[in-house]
Amino acid sequence: MQRPAGPARPAGVHRRGAGGGGDPTTERRACRLLPPGPPDEADGVRNVEVVEVVDLVKCYPGAAVRALDGVSVAFGPGSSTAVMGPSGSGKSTLLQCAAGLDRADSGRVLLAGQEIGSLREPRLTLARRGVGFVFQAYNLIDSLSVWHNVLLPQRLAGVRPDKAWAREVLHRVGLDGRGHERPARLSGGERQRVALARALAARPEVVFADEPTGALDLAAGREVLGLLREAVDQLGTALVMVTHDPAAAAWADRVVFLADGRIVAELHDPSVERIAERMTAVSAR
Ligand SMILES: Nc1ncnc2c1ncn2[C@@H]1O[C@H](COP(=O)(O)OP(=O)(O)OP(=O)(O)O)[C@@H](O)[C@H]1O
């Protein structure tokens, strides 16, 4: 299932929620928000974003500046978004808050239309069931086999794992027959593929990935990006990916740029060059 090395970003990826069809010259604009308006006239059903954050503010205790300073952004089904910005601009904080792993001081986070701000355990865990995570450090448990790592999030959430799907996911990420191995015996790229399989095994509506290729060499990084792209294209998963790498960001349909805890720019269907250019401009602010 690996995508062969090819162009930095596969073509034909305009999708709902990804800003597809947006005017590429309109690079700096507010992110699209779920309109609080009436139901969709065509079918009487209101479109629900997979994840929506509204006016998020977050200040860590003792910090002089806000890590997030009024961020509003929505992620639709089958969309892929790269989040970029200088170090300390709030990228990881946005991911953590949008995923319900950390709480903002104010603002709203909605997962599949459900506001999670006031939820306590176990309801919060239930609301997060549709959320998968892929972190640079993999967060794999070395005392467990690949197979048990992949099933762990569902077991922790009290959900009976779908083993047939877990096997299919391991197959898709190219780890057929490797389920019995310990993560420590795998290469960095293979461990990242396990992390991806673990995220996808729960059939998430959204995958949050924090620098998923940061620790990988070029070939392994491309492979992981290809797999993420497949999840978006074939499974309709929403992908939100923090990256410092313009080539990785170009795999996404949309790039949002953060600076000082705010969204300051947005590119749709961008090239590596335009991303790098914009990144330089944002960093020079
Ligand atoms: N646990 C924490 N306690 C205090 N301050 C924090 C904490 N985590 C992040 N910060 C601060 O919040 C701001 C945003 O940090 P964040 O990690 O979200 O940025 P980032 O854009 O992901 O940075 P990087 O690219 O370096 O990972 C920074 O000023 C950072 O120092």
Automatic annotation (TrEMBL):
<dbReference type="InterPro" id="IPR017871">
    <property type="entry name" value="ABC_transporter-like_CS"/>
</dbReference>
<dbReference type="InterPro" id="IPR017911">
    <property type="entry name" value="MacB-like_ATP-bd"/>
</dbReference>
<dbReference type="InterPro" id="IPR027417">
    <property type="entry name" value="P-loop_NTPase"/>
</dbReference>
<dbReference type="InterPro" id="IPR015854">
    <property type="entry name" value="ABC_transpr_LolD-like"/>
</dbReference>
<keyword id="KW-0067">ATP-binding</keyword>
<dbReference type="GO" id="GO:0005524">
    <property type="term" value="F:ATP binding"/>
</dbReference>
<feature type="region of interest" description="Disordered">
    <location>
        <begin position="1"/>
        <end position="43"/>
    </location>
</feature>
<keyword id="KW-0813">Transport</keyword>
<feature type="domain" description="ABC transporter">
    <location>
        <begin position="51"/>
        <end position="285"/>
    </location>
</feature>
<dbReference type="Pfam" id="PF00005">
    <property type="entry name" value="ABC_tran"/>
</dbReference>
<protein>
    <submittedName>
        <fullName>ABC transporter ATP-binding protein</fullName>
    </submittedName>
</protein>
<keyword id="KW-0547">Nucleotide-binding</keyword>
<dbReference type="InterPro" id="IPR003439">
    <property type="entry name" value="ABC_transporter-like_ATP-bd"/>
</dbReference>
<dbReference type="InterPro" id="IPR003593">
    <property type="entry name" value="AAA+_ATPase"/>
</dbReference>
<feature type="compositionally biased region" description="Low complexity">
    <location>
        <begin position="1"/>
        <end position="11"/>
    </location>
</feature>
